[in-house]
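Hi R.,

Here's the chain you asked about this morning:
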Amino acid sequence: MRFYKSGGYEKVIENVRILKEANFLELIQIATVFSKENLNQRYELYECVKNIGADSWQILTMEPVGRANQNKDLLPDVSDYMILFDFIRTIRKERKLHVTYGHSHFIGIDYEMAIRDDCFTCQAGIATAGILHNGDVFVCPAVPRLPELIQGNIRERDFCDI
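And the predicted structure, written out as tokens:
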């Protein structure tokens, strides 16, 4: 089962424009998750992100967590990653928009510095954490949600203590 919100894309674009016009944020970054279903729209999305005035574009790939586990047919395969990484490398060379790959995996020496600003280092528990809907503090949004990876709950303890 796939979940879409009718009019969601248009609402996001409208809200980015409102934020840009309000001129109180130092940086507006758009994040896009690519899957098999939307990979062919990468150039169109690039033009859209540039044209609405975003300062930065973080590109991610669909990972097998959450609802994605119910839609495994949409998960990128090796050739999809190569297409996306080559795309990112090409548009970064244009320097018209700050673009980076945002997933927390080492992607190999050929691509690591070509599509990111810095070489990947895991920041789980240092600069990254996830807070789930019920207040559980989770080690990292990029790993399976296993009960043994819950560090605590912000409804019971202060986040900094956790």
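The chain has a mean pLDDT of 86.

Let me know if you need anything else.
M.
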